[in-house]
């Protein structure tokens, strides 16, 4: 089965041209901006696309909050970013995004401790190939890729709204093109568990959440994107066959980060409507031609309602959210 999925993903990957080709139409001055005075939160920034994004933003003078689950890996990334960028404004926050209750605690504390946040980049993602649960009893892929993103974003929206030119970028995946939103089995309790398909479903859910948030929060510019297939630890570990099949065509992490950075910093981004799906600095359809993957308004409403119920069920009481998180 995973071989068939690898072939399917390979064919989807081929639908898009490579980075070199796409980048011929990029406008170089789009990224020619100073980010001094702007703050960015990037999840999963100790590795791959997240680290490349943090590095690019730090080099332009932005204040960077890197949210990582492992303190040592985060510290190594921070040192690397500071040394290459000369920018000391890089702060570590240790958080496992699969632990929904902790996401609430972190986001509530961050909101109390910071007077502004200009850009949230939901980059961290995982593909756990067995059905594993977090300490709240929630399936881990869903908890990390969907519910963690939901809670973090929902909680930080009031802070973003107070800040200048606020944006939220969520790193989804072209893999979501093979999935229609499934509202009935959010945690894969009934269907056979296939990590690649669960991941693709979560990435579809990120697209749907972004569309809903964009309509509900007009002060903030939301986008969701596919970074292109990049050679990162996540791909090598979670999809070894796909990694092997694509190895000569994979992008570098910097190339994968290009559109994330562009969406986060360039003025050109906000000329596009909020809520779109991007690839290579262009809005593209979130559905394949003639696809069955569109969801009805009712399905979207049911989905968002279920997320809210699950999120609120593990929301800690106010007193617990006062505690500070590691921040260096
Ligand atoms: N590379 C591609 O071809 C590709 C294609 C489509 C979409 N994407 C998406 O791009 C994003 C970045 O992935 P990547 O390819 O750059 O892989 P990566 O280098 O492995 O980075 C993934 C990051 O997410 C972090 N992470 C995973 N689970 C977490 C959790 N529970 N709590 C906190 N952090 C967590 C990882 O932390 P650890 O280092 O501690 O594991 C790591 O920092 C992901 O959302 C992925 O789905 C990548």
TrEMBL record:
Range of residues in the leader sequence: 1-18
Keyword tags: Signal
Gene3D superfamilies: NAD(P)-binding Rossmann-like Domain
Superkingdom of this protein's organism: Eukaryota
The keyword Signal belongs to this UniProt entry's keyword annotation: yes
Keyword Ribosomal protein: no
Protein name (record): Si:ch211-165b10.3
Source organism of the structure: Cyprinus carpio carpio
């Amino acid at each position: 089965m995973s071989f068939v999925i690898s072939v399917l993903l390979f064919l989807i990957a081929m639908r898009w041209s490579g980075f070199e080709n796409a980048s011929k139409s990029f406008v170089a001055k789009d990224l020619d901006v100073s980010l001094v005075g702007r703050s960015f939160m990037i999840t999963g920034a100790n590795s791959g696309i997240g680290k490349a994004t943090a590095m690019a933003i730090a080099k332009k003078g932005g204040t960077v909050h890197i949210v990582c689950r492992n303190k040592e890996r985060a510290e190594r990334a921070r040192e690397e970013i500071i040394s290459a960028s000369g920018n000391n404004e890089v702060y570590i926050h240790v958080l496992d995004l699969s632990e929904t209750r902790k996401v609430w605690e972190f986001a509530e504390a961050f909101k109390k401790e910071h007077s502004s946040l200009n850009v949230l980049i939901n980059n961290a993602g995982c593909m756990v190939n067995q059905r594993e649960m977090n300490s709240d009893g929630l399936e881990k892929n869903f908890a990390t890729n969907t519910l963690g993103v939901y809670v973090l974003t929902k909680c930080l929206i009031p802070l973003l709204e107070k800040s200048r030119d606020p944006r939220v970028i969520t790193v989804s995946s072209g893999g979501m093109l093979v999935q229609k939103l499934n509202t009935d089995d959010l945690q894969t309790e009934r269907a056979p568990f296939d990590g690649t398909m669960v991941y693709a479903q979560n990435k579809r859910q990120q697209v749907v959440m972004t569309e809903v948030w964009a309509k509900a929060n007009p002060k903030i510019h939301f986008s969701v994107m596919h970074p292109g297939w990049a050679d990162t630890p996540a791909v090598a570990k979670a999809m070894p066959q796909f990694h092997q099949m694509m190895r000569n065509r994979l992008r570098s992490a910097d190339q994968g980060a290009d559109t994330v950075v562009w969406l986060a910093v360039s003025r050109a981004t906000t000329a596009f409507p909020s809520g779109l799906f991007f690839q290579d600095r262009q809005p593209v359809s979130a559905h394949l031609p003639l696809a069955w993957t569109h969801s009805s308004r009712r399905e979207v409403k049911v989905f968002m309602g279920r997320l809210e119920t699950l999120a609120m069920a593990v929301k800690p009481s106010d007193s617990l959210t006062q505690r500070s998180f590691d921040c260096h």
